[in-house]
Amino acid sequence: MSEHSASLADRRPFISSGAIPKAWPFEEARKLAEHVATKGDDRPALLETGYGPSGLPHIGTFGEVARTSWVRQAYTALTGRPTRLLAFSDDMDALRKVPDNVPNREMLTQFIGMPLTKVPDPFGTFGSFAAHNNARLQSFLDSFGFDYDFASSTEYYTSGRFDAALRRVLEVHDEIVAVIRPTLGAERRETYSPVLPIHPKTGQVMQVRMDRVDPVAGTVCWTDEQGERFETLVTGGAAKMQWKADWAMRWYALGVDYEMSGKDLIDSVRLSGKICRILGAPPPAGLTYELFLDENGQKISKSKGNGLSVEEWLRYAPPESLSQFMFNHPERAKRLFFDVIPRGTDEYLAHVDKAAALQARCVAAGDAVEADADRVALCTSPAWFIHAGHIPDHAGSPVSFSMLLNLASVANAETPDVLWGFLRRYDAAVSPDTHPMLATLVDRAVVFYTDFVRPAKSYRLPDEQELQALTDLAESLRMYEGEEASAEVLQNLVFEIGKRHKFEPLRSWFTCLYEVLLGQSEGPRFGGFIALYGVRSTIALIEAALVRSSEA
């Protein structure tokens, strides 16, 4: 996504006919445009993503920022209007529990209840725990080329940026309480206030009953657990808001136009929207996205460790494949485990090839109105979003990731050089320099094969029907030894033999090829595999399987 900043600099509507491409970011962009139009000002549309810095950025963080960036891109393509993306860190929030994945956990227990910007960094590299995690967040987002502005809750509160909005909260304090109170348990219902004063002596974020609220003075009066009474200004960083009220206050104060959130926050979005209206502004437009599931359909939990991390995904596939996974149907729950990586990678490769062809046609046509159909089709492609509106040269690969994985499996590839030997025999023109994406896929395929494919390989013996068909395939392939048969010709041959031996359904013939020859349940278009692996090598592969069968 490194082209994002350059893409947003060209703020002209990309689609002149007014047609809206059938891709979910454009539907969200339409909602955003309608929201902005009701405000009647010329400010850039403000899109926000939130981050709780008590933990490190994770794959969900990537997903939310990427998806919001795609809505931003679609909005600019539709309207030509400028936008801003604000990555907001709630770093004034209190440390509520000690994370499991940090050092010096015992030290952190002493700071429960303190604002995260006042909690020492357990890693010992920054001035506070929040500063450490904020830096990690920005480094994380920068590594993907996201175009954003970073915002610190502590800085916004202490600088007075929220002061006017905080005074407004006091003016409508009882109305906000009336909205939130019915959602609380009996005990909390009696003490709830949207205001959390900072204890002037201990520095803790206090969750206490307000004895008095004074909108004119801009203060709240409250009593701590020791019975000492305090009057605290809500401005200047001396207090912060409870998080649902904080979310609403932020929308109101900053004029946020769009923010998406997970399905688990549906009730919070509804309540914050009501509070935002009480404050005097409409809540932003937004999308509710579904959550991630593990391979067993259970909700992903960071504490359980039953999901993939960004680092794990990028060990086995390029970042574009992760973007592809995030782009697909955000309204549906997704299973996030290692098996989805090859599929997501090949899906990206298929889209980027088609998008590159459409882009070439659009460039050739210039601003001609008759090219709008191609522009609309291009904007429907996930690759157009993944590459921020411009498909770079050599973004695709002449060989699919699944094909490389199968090649690595059959060739027992321990190093990329093994795969490059087959690739150069297949096409002498390919190299890491001319095909950088292919080079990345080759490197990742070797790692994926080593970690997942090789340990799971399990060959089965063919039955009598399969034995005869495999023998027939080996004999038929001998006619192509020494010739350069295309993948299509070889695929047709494989089909013909499956039909000749009456496999019903025909898919069972291909399942036989995968399980008997490759040692796995799924595989590539077999004609393409033969073309890449080589006719003679494939014959040898079949003969080895026949020998195993005869010896069994």
TrEMBL record:
InterPro entries: aa-tRNA-synth_I_codon-bd_sub2 (IPR020751), aa-tRNA-synth_I_CS (IPR001412), aa_tRNA-synth_I_cd-bd_sf (IPR008925), Lys-tRNA-ligase (IPR002904), Rossmann-like_a/b/a_fold (IPR014729)
Motif 'KMSKS' region location, chain numbering: 299-303
Subcellular location: Cytoplasm
GO terms for MF: lysine-tRNA ligase activity
Motif segment ('HIGH' region): 53-61
Catalysed reactions listed for this entry: tRNA(Lys) + L-lysine + ATP = L-lysyl-tRNA(Lys) + AMP + diphosphate
Family: Belongs to the class-I aminoacyl-tRNA synthetase family.
Alphabetical list of PANTHER family matching this protein: LYSINE--TRNA LIGASE
Protein name: Lysine--tRNA ligase
Organism ancestry: Bacteria, Pseudomonadati, Pseudomonadota, Alphaproteobacteria, Acetobacterales
